[in-house]
Amino acid sequence: MINTPFPAFFLIIVAGAAIALQSPLNAALGRHIGSSLGAATISFGVGFALLLAITLASGDGGRLLDAAHAPRLLLTGGLLGAFLVWATLASVSVLGVLTMSSVLILGQIVAALAIDHMGLFGLVAREVSLTRLMAAGLVAAGVVLSRY
């Protein structure tokens, strides 16, 4: 488990780069097979197979059964992830990787402000300060600059 900021920052930087790579790869797969939904399905299938293998190899396979007792809302993350994969691969060819990534980050920041403010899902509530709003505004400005 990650307990300090530096490894967490590094992990998220790598994950951000993976999103930037994943979108054009999935879009190319979609063009190749003639279906953006099919490409998203294949992407999720490959990811599922890898995660299942790692989960089983780590000895956590039995934990998967505990999901049957989880509140249904907690199982919607997969739906959101599937939508993310499809939306990025459907948009990257029109927007380009930089603009698509910038708009994606802006959406994340706007949602994050609301989630933090309300303290959803057991998180500590954090105020929507002027500084945080300015950070969101700078990202919005970056969206404009990335496109025009």
Automatic annotation (TrEMBL):
InterPro entries linked to this entry: YdcZ
Highest rank taxon of the organism: Bacteria
Pfam families associated with the record: DMT_YdcZ (PF04657)
Keyword entries, A-Z: Membrane, Transmembrane, Transmembrane helix
A GO CC annotation given for this chain: plasma membrane
Segments passing through the bilayer: 37-58, 70-89, 95-115, 127-145
Keyword Nucleus: no
The keyword Mitochondrion is assigned to this record: no
The name this protein goes by in its record: Transporter family-2 protein
